[in-house]
Amino acid sequence: xxxxxxxxxxxxxxxxxxxxxxxxxxxxxxxxxxxxxxxxxxxxxxxxxxxxxxxxxxxxxxxxxxxxxxxxxxxxxxxxxxxxxxxxxxxxxxxxxxxxxxxxxxxxxxxxxxxxxxxxxxxxxxxxxxxxxxxxxxxxxxxxxxxxxxxxxxxxxxxxxxxxxxxxxxxxxxxxxxxxxxxxxxxxxxxxxxxxxxxxxxxxxxxxxxxxxxxxxxxxxxxxxxxxxxxxxxxxxxxxxxxxxxxxxxxxxxxxxxxxxxxxxxxxxxxxxxxxxxxxxxxxxxxxxxxxxxxxxxxxxxxxxxxxxxxxxxxxxxxxxxxxxxxxxxxxxxxxxxxxxxxxxxxxxxxxxxxxxxxxxxxxxxxxxxxxxxxxxxxxxxxxxxxxxxxxxxxxxxxxxxxxxxxxxxxxxxxxxxxxxxxxxxxxxxxxxxxxxxxxxxxxxxxxxxxxxxxxxxxxxxxxxxxxxxxxxxxxxxxxxxxxxxxxxxxxxxxxxxxxxxxxxxxxxxxxxxxxxxxxxxxxxxxxxxxxxxxxxxxxxxxxxxxxxxxxxxxxxxxxxxxxxxxxxxxxxxxxxxxxxxxxxxxxxxxxxxxxxxxxxxxxxxxxxxxxxxxxxxxxxxxxxxxxxxxxxxxxxxxxxxxxxxxxxxxxxxxxxxxxxxxxxxxxxxxxxxxxxxxxxxxxxxxxxxxxxxxxxxxxxxxxxxxxxxx
Length: 711
Ligand SMILES: Nc1nc2c(c(=O)[nH]1)N[C@H]1C(S)=C(S)[C@@H](COP(=O)(O)OP(=O)(O)OC[C@H]3O[C@@H](n4cnc5c(=O)[nH]c(N)nc54)[C@H](O)[C@@H]3O)O[C@H]1N2
Ligand SMILES: Nc1nc2c(c(=O)[nH]1)N[C@H]1C(S)=C(S)[C@@H](COP(=O)(O)OP(=O)(O)OC[C@H]3O[C@@H](n4cnc5c(=O)[nH]c(N)nc54)[C@H](O)[C@@H]3O)O[C@H]1N2
Ligand code: SF4
Ligand SMILES: [Mo]
Description:
- This protein is α/β, with parallel strands linked by helices.
- Helices cover 33% and strands 18% of the residues.
- It contains 26 helices and 28 strands.
- α4 packs across α23 (507-517).
- The longest helix has 19 residues, at 81-99.
- The structure holds ligand MGD (2 copies), iron/sulfur cluster and molybdenum atom.
- Residues 14, 140, 173-177, 179-180, 204-207, 209, 221, 223-224, 226, 299-302, 337-338, 591, 593-594, 596, 598-600, 697 line the site of one ligand MGD.
């Protein structure tokens, strides 16, 4: 607990990172959460999930002490920290001695704080010598990371939330921001509603979501057809003289190849492939191209695809062609999902990365990190490690022997869960670091379960979607024996014999070491300190020295792109059809996503009755014409079958909001909360070849009525 704490912190749910004010009760627990009116990024706004944080945090399902499983098939039993962590360390050491460092993997999460990530990554890459460090961000925004890097030279959204206040056209592509980034969406609506007819919102989504309903134009495309749609939009822009030739010639490279590539994608062709009416496609292109400033926000509908990188590139290309980047109200803005997905990618939480956007493949980058970590250069492995999906596949086929999971519940959130379960069963060692119990992953598969202190109970930093680094203080005592994740990893390092490099006594010490790694890089935060964050609120990187106030927007006039010649790159997207195209045997296309009041696998929001009210159970949304053909009415139980992978039972919800041929189900409900089975029993693990992000948004399925059953 922090005696000088003034009640200000950041929300632990989505990547918007709203500033909050927290009141505690007589025993110091979190009692009330409000918006922080003074917060520079979000000015007092918040959504329902944040309001009900006290109930979620103080839930009776908190994990209070370490547990170990004496043998597979037996129940977990309580244990002390030394036994649990020491035992896990001994087993890890034994596995590494026998099979080598790449036989172990760390599966982390965008819900860890930057300090947690840093310590885990330093231990694995710098001391154990494996790059098998990845996170659930692989399922989330790795396609955007690859696309930013390919197009702009380095990862990182160039925009700021203030851009919502000046954009004349805001396009949401594969983003249901009304439910998933509500505070940003409200800001976009406020701008549009202040100047109706002059400012516009476009939504690109196969469903008529709350976002689409509020938009001026809704492009209701077939799932998986973003690349053709975006190529079609660029075709119209080029054809109608809505591109910025001066910007193209002075600040970009690759335009003529791009022009060749869009030749075929006439609006008629794009309309035919995507199912979007040609007039709407042309209207959207004109609104985007004629606006003084256009902003695009993209999220999982784009990223979670076998063509996720190409789709992200196709979106960025619209901005490069029109010069809508590096100016107020303009830019390609990847909305990050988790509160610290950004921090994770900055600190090297993805398999091919080292801290501060360095790459494991780059010998200079490895040398810099070896020197900062004071380890031999040869210790740092030049090969990228296994990515999220690959880790679970490697467990199943025996290449990976141990997995250390922190702040994720992969037995619900990974695609193709039957093979994930097989992998977890075959593993020699599964360690789960979580704040709640039971979870589907811990209760069934973990050999060791370690209790984590969570938001409000430990301090550290996180970076929001607009590159804003914020400090989150410890406000309340951690329950039971729970510990901060960074200190659990540091304890593991000590048990493994690396104590002298992990002597941290506070998160601040970890942060100060980490920020040294950023000096001179594209995301230099040498000028950020806990003291400044506490006094000034969040700071947007780069912020290279104490005098810097941070950077609101990247690539403004006079600021080169991060490529060798300073020019952004047009990358020509190719469209790959998904292996999950509908067939006669599986005629419907299942897409998945979120609902407004639940968070992921529901360990927190599922404990709050008020948040369950609006949507108490999962469902399968389908068009009335499909429902009629299948003989399903509202509330009937639909059996959804996906190839040999599995089947799931879901109550039908018949709605015009989804086009015929497409069905939708939220993925929140795991086996512990829905006996009909988790939706990811159906999804497949095919991934984008560049980003290795799986195509969670498209699965070919067959649906039939389960006779005699209703919800
Ligand atoms: N309430 C709530 N908010 C959240 C979260 C949560 O769990 N609950 N999670 C956070 C996290 S980690 C993330 S990543 C974000 C996700 O934020 P979003 O990406 O906005 O959320 P999703 O519902 O996963 O998917 C967005 C939309 O993609 C559409 N879609 C499906 N297939 C396609 C396609 O082929 N093309 C296009 N263009 N669209 C498609 C879906 O219909 C859906 O409406 O939300 C964050 N905010
Ligand atoms: N079908 C389908 N599947 C999807 C998606 C989809 O759109 N469709 N979206 C994907 C995306 S974008 C994401 S981000 C993932 C999310 O999937 P997960 O990462 O599995 O989601 P969470 O439920 O948020 O898991 C976080 C876990 O960390 C615990 N926790 C909370 N705070 C702390 C803490 O401070 N420390 C520790 N150690 N633990 C903590 C929680 O109790 C919870 O068990 O799901 C992915 N899966
Ligand atoms: S919009 Fe996101 S960050 Fe803001 S209060 Fe809601 S969940 Fe939290
Ligand atoms: Mo996510």
